Amino acid sequence: MSLESLNTELLACRKCPRLVAWREEVARIKRRAYRDWEYWGKPVPGFGDPRARVMAVGLAPGAHGSNRTGRMFTGDASGEFLYAALFRAGFANQPESRYRDDGLTLKNLYITAVCRCAPPGNKPSPQEIANCQPYMAQEIEIIQPRILVALGRVAFERILRIIYVGQPTSNDCPSPVTFAPGAAYQLMTGHRLLCSYHPSRQNTQTGRLTPKMFDEVWTNTRELLDATLQQISSPL
How are strands ordered across the β-sheet holding 147-151? Predict the structure, then answer.
């Protein structure tokens, strides 16, 4: 399956009645500050370099962010925090993202999420997360990233469920691999997995996640990527 065909399937998805109703209600009623916008109001596809060696995984679209703009981490405070850090680390060509066609491009990075529809209260249910899992699993299969960056515990746990399918640890996270912001793991599949708090306003405004902490995650990611690219290009 190609990314194009996967996204075509995704855009038609209506597996979760609660999420379908919420994303469409938000798109219809709108927030006053965005009353002139035509909200996206659909599942949000992944975004970035289709040949990326790095994949970042968030939780779900924001009601008035990605659900409005139609692009991951675009148009809200989480995106402002994320793309500024990606720009500093050399993964993005500009430090902000306000709408889908604002010229933002990513290099060697693809951004996706556990859930593709905006959930009420930013809290998808376990069943809604499970319904959406095949889309991220397919993205990983198509893109074949070497490095995965989990933005939050839910993303971390979902990545492990997908990566370890068919492995002895498929039902449980291997004991040495636990979510710890700033941690980096070498998985038995050969993937590298890095952890960060999600760049939500709740985390960034309380100081739980600072720009310095987030920069360290992306600096480590950049160093791992450079080492990976060097290994690929070096003769055996």
Answer: 47-48, 109-113, 54-58, 147-151, 192-196, 184-186
